[in-house]
Specification:
The protein is an all-beta fold. It contains no helices and nine strands.
Length: about 100
Amino acid sequence: MTASTHTPHTDHAHEHGSKCGHVAVPHQDHTDYVHDGHLHRTHDDHVDECETAGHSVHEGHDHQHRDGCGHVAVPHGDHVDYVHDGHRHAQHHDHWDDH
């Protein structure tokens, strides 16, 4: 699994947590929260944009994610990720990536 980049999200007064109303997505050793089309994670005294660095192919993934596939859809930048088996899958060309 690739590391996450450290990109603080400035001017973010909202505090994410179990009752904040945003979709919680398990991600590596923390939880991301879907907010305004991107993913936030709490880091020390601020919130970061949680983006993985690099490209991580999810091998052997035969399931085709789409609307109604049964997995939580997460708007993420210019595409949609799907929460599956404790991580996010994103379609990339002819395969799925782990985000």
